[in-house]
Amino acid sequence: MGWVRSSRWVVSAGLIGGIVSVYLCLVGVVVTLDTYVVGRISVGRVLLAMPAVLMGYLVARPTVIAGEVRRPRMSQAARTSAVAGLVAGAVLAAGIGIVNLVGVDTVRNVFIQVKPELMELLTFGHPGVAGTVLRVLVTIVLALLGAVVAYLPDRVRVPTIVASSVVVGLGLLRRIMHPALAQLGLRDDWLYDVVTLGLTWVGAAIVWVVTFGASYAWRANRATVLARTRKTPATQKSVRLLLLGVVGLVLAVLPYLVGSIMAQILGSVGIYVLLGLGLNIVVGYAGLLDLGYVAFFAVGAYTTGILTGGSRITTTGFTPPSFSLHLSFYVAIPIVVTAAAIVGIVIGAPVLRLRGDYLAIVTLGFGEIARVLFTSDWLKDVFGGTQGITAVPAAPIGALEFRDTQHFYFLVLAFCLVAVYVSWRLADSRVGRAWNAMREDEQVAEAVGVSTVRYKLLAFAMGGAIGSLGGALFAIQVGALNNASFTILVSITALAVVILGGMGSIPGVIVGAFVLIGIPGVLDEFQQYRLLFYGAVLMAIMILRPQGLIPNVRRSRELEEEDVAQDKWAGDLAGDEHVSAPSTPIGEGSG
Amino acid sequence: MNLLEVRGVSKHFGGLYALSGLDVTVEEGEILSIIGPNGAGKSTVFNVITGLYAPDGGDVVFRGESIVGLTPNQITKLGIARTFQTVHLFPNMTVLENAMVGQHCRSGATIVGAILRTPATRREERRIRDRASTSLAFFGSRLAGYRQDQPAFSLSYANRRRLEMARALATEPSLILLDEPTAGMNPTETLELRDHIVRMRDTLGLTILLIEHDMRVVKGVSDRVVACDYGKKIAEGSYDEVASHERVIEAYLGTKAVG
Predict the structure, then answer these.
(1) Which residues does chain B have within 8 Å of residue A448's beta carbon, measured at their own beta carbons?
(2) How distant is the Cα of A580 from the closest Cα of chain B, in angstroms?
(3) Is residue A520 part of a domain?
(4) Which of A115, A386, B32, B223 is packed most tightly, with the most Cβ within 10 A?
(5) By the CB < 8 Å criterion, does B43 face chain A?
């Protein structure tokens, strides 16, 4: 039995690929994302090509039947991916045909992103049948390219994918790389084209070859390298220290390398790390699904604003809130945290009896209530109504103002380190165990002696306290608070950060924040497609890796080392109980 | 001395009377079995004693004081531990962590102590770990060694039952309620467990209240047996007395057809 792929499967893959391409065209991704990656190839074009390549890759993959891996012959792989490519191309061609029939301007009344530029791009500047046929052919070629990737042996395929991704990434990251390289005193005109601002072909080729080589070498020697670092506890420890040192160094110089605009994005990432870590305690540790987490963000921001002396905008100009205290930020922080913890208990108390979906809906409501209260006319004298609070003072330590985005980054970093430390300590403690037990089975936890009332309230208070730190930093980062900043989107994003990284995982939250806040921030052109990006990323994660990007590390490692431990244990037992067992290996002893 | 007294406890769910005026007295240091056909209200008694259900009438007295109205965790802290009819573990926590949760009510580290990891907290954490290990060691090598660090979901069925008991033991109870501990176990495991139940009393000094369907186990371990049906006590006494009691036979086998 050889490799078989049902034709229905192949045609569906082609249809899906075609529909995704048409969708990308309709939402405008293809034309709007016009940053050049390499030469004259824009991000939009890369994204347009991706569905075809992915589809070609998927249909030409080896099949696994009952554990047996079957690889396609080259002709089979080529044939299936070509068919899928043809179908996808046909879908695109049909789209082009319809637009041509109806007329671009008419279609634009509904799909505002369908522009003449798009049609020109799709048909390679040849209106009419020629261009359409060309598009179909290109789609087939792209699908074949995917098939080639699928056909490569593992040791070549993975480096190929890594190297290609790095090239695309570098192409997009000129905004970071250019100032960073300049800071380091390196020239980058060989790498980035001065006119298109994308990579030059030569630069791209060099980057590709270097990354490919590095990735290939790493894959070939990974086992040996890891074995060497894990050999003894001492080497393990020194490797860990070395890694910690490198991470510390990178964190310390990062804002200066990437420039002040990127440092601001790093600041935002840090704020979401704080929100994620706080929510991680509520959702990840204690298992309480909170969809109104923005309440704590708002409490943190507004209390900071008021305590440190922000002003309200009124008809008579700027006036301080009714009871502005003009405290220093650092004096205000303990009060802010306490206030947030109290709000956590106040929110937690009425929902003690609720679980799962019901809890989620009620907390969703609380989030909205918080936003409405803070921006209401009723409390206008305190929180400034819809105009909000403005001119929140900075948080100076001596001469350091922390207004500058690069300095602000360090303030955020310090808060994040504290939050990481707290989360880490709590995870492996009596309190953390009680939360975990509650997450696993609330009723049983109660029966085993955990006061679920107390620990639920404690989770809300602790999660709220950490989240409010994010709000406090947000207040001094932007300096102005109004109702636009505290929408439900904050709750959703924070939850997405936690889910993407892996519930209950601290590194997961950090990575999640970098992916969901950092990437759309750095790739400026993606901003308007941010929610599309979130949706796509979350769907992909839920389908491909529901445990998150970096699941709770300890557990996965335990599973990995289980076999070793089991053998060792069995060996120890045998040693204990059967002292008379022959100690020499059987091969030698019985010779 | 009576350790636990269930005095005329009633519990109904809508129109269904799970318990109607049940009296059970448990003396310190004894093994008391509750038997009865399915639906006799045996598990409901356990749920009332441990505070999961509030009784509709009657009183539950532990060491001379009423425990009705206390939350389950407070009752656990007073010294009553239990296992469930269907195994309820914390499946994604390790075996040791499951047992360590049992020590929760015997320790007091606060959130501040946990964050700062003070010497007192560290000492307490060591103590929790040791005691949890000790209660796992009650089942010999079954839950020892590498298994301690495995997630609970990876255990075999019998080991899950054992872990549930070890977790109950880790709460350092004086009275333990076992709800059909041998359900689903094979004959060898059942025999082994029977010995464990006796050993819980003899070496740990626990008082044991047992719900059990396997009559060999009931016969082998019980000092006294209480038989229930329709939420009432129908017989009480030694195993032989209860087993030959007319109403017990009737409850299990039904009445003879008249005529």
Answers:
(1) 73, 76, 81, 101-102, 104-105, 167-168, 171
(2) 20
(3) no
(4) B32
(5) no
Residues A449, B77: C-beta atoms closer than 8 Å: yes
Interatomic CA distance for residues B199 and A508, integer angstroms? 46
Q: Is A573 on the interface with B (CB under 8 A)?
A: yes
Range of the structural domain that residue B153 is part of: 80-172
Do the domain assignments include residue B243? yes
Which of A110, A130, A151 terminates a domain? The answer is A151
Q: Which of B145, B172, B199 is the last residue of a domain?
A: B172
Is residue B75 in a domain?
A: no
Number of CB pairs, chain A paired with chain B, less than 8 A apart: 118
Determine, for residues A434 and B104 on separate chains, whether the beta-carbon distance falls below 8 Å.
Answer: yes
Per residue in A264-305, pLDDT (tens digit) is 899 999 999 999 999 999 999 999 999 999 999 999 999 998
Question: Residue A532 is encoded by which pair of tokens?
Answer: 């599309």
The reply to whether residue A440 touches residue B128, judged by beta carbons under 8 angstroms, is no
Say how far apart CA A159 and CA A201 lie, in whole Å.
19
pLDDT 10s digits, A485-509: 899 999 999 999 999 988 889 999 9
Which tokens sit at B140?
């010999």
CB contact under 8 A, B146 and A555: no
Residue B86 pLDDT > 80: yes
Report the alpha-carbon distance of residue A513 to residue A270 in Å, rounded.
8
Q: Are residues B151 and B210 in the same domain?
A: no
Q: Where among A488, A512, A532 does a domain terminate?
A: A488
Per-residue pLDDT of chain A (591 residues; tens, 9 = 90+): 578 888 899 999 999 999 999 999 988 888 888 888 888 888 888 989 999 999 999 988 888 877 788 888 888 889 999 999 999 999 999 999 998 888 888 888 888 888 888 888 888 888 778 889 999 999 999 999 999 998 888 888 889 999 999 998 888 888 788 888 888 888 888 888 888 888 889 989 999 999 999 999 988 888 888 787 777 777 778 888 898 899 999 888 888 888 888 888 999 999 999 999 999 999 999 999 999 999 999 999 999 988 988 787 777 777 777 777 788 889 999 999 999 999 999 999 998 888 888 999 999 999 999 999 988 888 877 787 778 888 788 887 877 777 788 889 999 999 999 999 999 999 989 999 999 999 999 999 999 999 999 999 999 999 999 999 999 999 999 888 888 889 999 999 999 999 998 888 999 999 999 989 988 888 777 778 888 888 888 888 888 888 888 887 554 544 445 555 555 655 555 554 443 444 444 444 333
In terms of domains, do A132 and A277 share one? no
The alpha carbon of residue A279 and the mean position of all alpha carbons in its chain are separated, in whole angstroms, by 16
In a domain, B203, yes or no: yes
Question: Where does a domain end: B135, B155, B172?
Answer: B172
Within an 8 Å CB–CB cutoff, is residue A105 touching chain B? Answer: no
Q: Which among B71, B73, B104 is the nearest to A430, CB-wise?
A: B104
Q: B223 with B102, same domain? A: no
Residue A157 lies in a domain: no
Neighbours of A401 (CB within 10 A): 14
Measured between CB atoms, which of A436, A447, A562 is closest to B72?
A447
Quick one: tokens of B24? 């059970």
Q: Is A106 exposed, middle or buried (0-12, 13-18, 19+ CB in 10 A)?
A: exposed
Total tally of structural domains belonging to chain B: 2
Question: Does A500 reside within a domain?
Answer: no
Query: Is there a single domain that holds both residue B140 and residue B161?
Result: yes
B239 located within any domain: yes
A553 and chain B in contact, CB less than 8 A: no
Question: Nearest CB to A449: which of B73, B97, B149?
Answer: B73
Q: What is the CATH number of the domain that holds B118?
A: 3.40.50.300
Indicate yes or no: CB of A569 within 8 angstroms of CB of B128: no
Nearest chain A residue to B87, by CA? A444
Would an 8 Å CB–CB cutoff place A566 in contact with chain B? Answer: yes
Could you tell me the pTM of the whole model? 0.86
ipTM value: 0.93
Domain that holds residue A140: 1-151
In this complex, is the C-beta atom of B94 within 8 Å of any C-beta atom belonging to chain A? yes
B117–A425 CB contact, under 8 Å:
yes
Q: Residue A113, by phi and psi: left (phi above 0), alpha (psi -120 to 50) or beta?
A: alpha
Angstrom CA distances, B37 to A146, A499, A578, B6, B185, stand at: 65, 47, 47, 20, 19
Confirm or reject contact between A430 and chain B (CB < 8 A): yes
Q: Do B16 and B45 belong to one domain?
A: yes
Residues A267 and A128 in one domain: no
- A560 lies in some domain: no
Q: How many domains does chain A have?
A: 2
Give which of B101, B160, B176 to mutate to test A binding, by max A Cβ within 10 Å. Answer: B101
Contact B9, B55 (CB under 8 A): yes
